[in-house]
Amino acid sequence: MEGNHSGSAGSTQPSGSGERTDGHIYEVATFKPLIIPCYVLVLVVGVFGNYLLLYVICRTRKMHNVTNFFIGNLAFSDMLMCVTCVPFSLAYAFNPRGWVFGRSMCYVVFLIQPVTVYVSVFTLTAIAVDRYYATVHPLKKRTTVSTCVSVLIGIWLLSCGLVAPAVTHTYHVEFKDEGFTICEEFWLGQEKERRVYAYSTLLVTYVLPLSAVFVSYLCITVKLKKCVAPGNRTQDQAGIHQARKRKIFRLVALLVSAFAVCWLPIHVFNVLRDIDINLINKHYFLLIQLLCHLCAMSSSCCNPFLYAWLHDRFGAELRKCFSAVIASECLPITVLPVWCCDEPIIVFSLNLLFILSTCRNLRGKHFVVKDWSLFCCKTGSFQGNPLSMFCSKMMDWTEVNLAERPIFWNHHMIQFNVLPVNR
């Protein structure tokens, strides 16, 4: 049965119990304390980061253009990929009972997972083509919003069509005597057809799109080097125009590069498994597959950071969202929910992220801070707590006067109330 298991390029699901051996389970269990936190980090950052990206694009009318609509579609597909790929794949890989989510979810998840991957790569290709026409042929008619919507609908339909053969060969099989269930793709008696589909999918959803993107950006690079701004612009205006184009080019080029690098290991793994499964050490098979899968999933975390780093307007709008809390004369309480956790480093990181984003807008102003209640680990105390010491330093740095010393509660919220000082 293993010989008929698909290793298609679009496969985003680590093998389940059906391909496990005691050695596989032992090796994966050994690295479980490392793998699970990495997957959780990818899930949290991928969902939260892409949600912020979508929120800013939808909220800001100035960002309602074709390129940002494409990037918004990319963020949505990445967020959906995190939600469907990460938790289900992790549970399937580590649960000794295999697939425990039922027959219906087996087909739904195995449909959505590759669709989101294909949508991402096709969207990146569409962005590259749009940038190519905007840079190399600036006088031609630009892509309209209606055309953009049609392209996005076509991308989703094409992705669903490419997944259809795999879904029709997906089976939910219960082994009641052994006590586990598998949800896998099998091409029983159709080994030749399986290989054709696997390599065709790899070609259509990875090699060709990224090749087209590479050629597009090569042409854009050549054009930018010898481009002269049209009209009667001053030298400074032309320089600003060129700098803006180069920044957009770097943004999209890095998005594509991150996608290509992150997805390369899982594609290489699937090809090697197709050629000869013995090329991969059976003792570490599931562990290697999980690490390759983790690398692929991490691509969903790259886009928000790259976009925030290289896109000035996105960074400005994101700061506006956070600073809206302190925009009025008398500011309301701000509540940021976080997960209850006993790990000080996780708690510290979450609080650090929020404090930095807020205090950046407070610098140079004088405030009275009342009713601080900062979420801390259960065993934490004010004395010697790294988070409390950091907050104390942060107060001095932002020239904030404390009405009360920070109180550390066993609570699941971060709350503070900021009032301006009348001078």
Automatic annotation (TrEMBL):
One of its GO terms (cellular component) is neuron projection. Residues 49-307 form the G-protein coupled receptors family 1 profile domain. It holds the Pfam family 7tm_1. It is a multi-pass membrane protein. Residues 1-20 are annotated as: Disordered. Gene3D superfamilies: Rhodopsin 7-helix transmembrane proteins. CDD domains: 7tmA_PrRP_R. Keywords: G-protein coupled receptor, Membrane, Receptor, Transducer, Transmembrane, Transmembrane helix. It comes from the Eukaryota. This is Prolactin releasing hormone receptor 2b. It comes from Labrus bergylta.
